[in-house]
Amino acid sequence: MARSKKPVVIVTRRLPDIIETRMMELFDARLNVDDHPMSRADLIEAVQQADVLVPTVTDRIDAELIAQAGPNLGLIANFGTGVDNIDLKAAHERGITVTNTPGVLTEDTADMTMALVLAVARRITEGERLARSGDWGGWSPTNMLGQRLWGKRLGIIGMGRIGQALAQRARGFGLAIHYHNRTRVPEEIEDELEAVYWESLDQMLSRMDIISVNCPHTPATYHLLNARRLALLQPHAVLVNTSRGEVVDETALADHLENGEIAGAGLDVYEHEPEINPRLRALDNAVLLPHIGSATIEGRVAMGEKVIINAKTFVDGHAPPDRVLETMF
Ligand code: 8YV
């Protein structure tokens, strides 16, 4: 069969209509109509047929898969900012360009992080469950007391775009901003956010009231918050993670929450998605969301637009704007 003249773009999940329509105009776009995560066999077929593959966080694009890529696969245009689902080294060794969608989900993810801080500190979901249960005995001065945010210390692990957007919001809630990052951010940003830099993550952990994980998942950040580091947190501390589950040792976190060694956790991401550790699911002091940190209509469309720009630029023979280099992570 003659190959279509338009480049074959295989999209592993359903995207907003407006994005799919535009993709079909521009490319020979093949959509995964049932929207289930692709099976390994389907992914192998996809990398063999595609000129451009558009995966999401639910697709594992590892070295073994990349080794089976067909001769035409030139671009992996990830629908997402985090690229821990892709073996960058294997892709680059094979001459495959990788792009992502940075910047357009910053504000939404920062909003959701702040929402989780509030939900845990002020016991919002617990209160909602009580209100719905029919068991609420009426107002009492000691009912469902949470923690005041105003005047507390927020420690942000990873002061990139999302960390900074979170800091801006948190300042409005009267939180003092502290952070740990691979490298110190420029002085003007520190000044604007009145942010205190901690070179030692361990020291920062032991001094904070709230900790937010906003760094990418890389080999260096895998289980960054392990049992030893979680033990440094104060008993009233709240931990929030909207980054990647793998950054926190989930079993150790469940131990700490069960034993009251920290006050609560707000999680949007998990080590083995879509499975959520049943021990976490059983806890009242854990607020659990199903990886929806960036899930807004506007955000998803903007992500799709970035994918289209990256793919179109690439197939037209130019360097796409959001190239991901191995050195970035
Ligand atoms: C996305 C995310 O929803 O972009 C990311 O890195 O974690 C999410 O907000 C998802 O990854 C899309 O693939």
Structural description of this entry:
By secondary structure, the chain is an alpha/beta fold. The chain has 2 domains: 8-104 and 297-328, Rossmann fold (3-Layer(aba) Sandwich); 106-288, NAD(P)-binding Rossmann-like Domain (Rossmann fold), CATH 3.40.50. Helices cover 36% and strands 13% of the residues. Strands 8-7-6-9-10-11-12 form a 7-stranded parallel β-sheet, with helices on both faces. Strands 2-1-3-4-5 form a 5-stranded parallel β-sheet, with helices on both faces. 2-keto-D-gluconic acid (8YV) binds at residues 56-57, 79-82, 105, 293-294.
Provide the succession of SSEs: EHEHEHEHEHHEHEHEHEHEHEHEH
Distance between the termini: 41 Å
CATH topology of the largest domain: Rossmann fold
Q: Which range does the strand content fall in? A: 5-15%
Bound molecules: 2-keto-D-gluconic acid
Tally of individual helices: 13
Mean pLDDT across the residues is 97
- Considering the protein shown, what is the CATH homologous superfamily of the largest domain? NAD(P)-binding Rossmann-like Domain
- Please state the structural category: alpha/beta
How many DSSP-defined strands?
Answer: 12
CATH class of the largest domain: Alpha Beta
Give a short account of the largest sheet.
7 strands, parallel
Helix percentage range: 25-40%
Adjacency order of strands in the biggest sheet: 8-7-6-9-10-11-12
How does the overall form come out from the CA principal axes? globular
Keywords: NAD, Oxidoreductase
GO molecular function: glyoxylate reductase (NADPH) activity; hydroxypyruvate reductase [NAD(P)H] activity; NAD binding
Domain D-isomer specific 2-hydroxyacid dehydrogenase NAD-binding: 114-293
Pfam family, one: 2-Hacid_dh_C
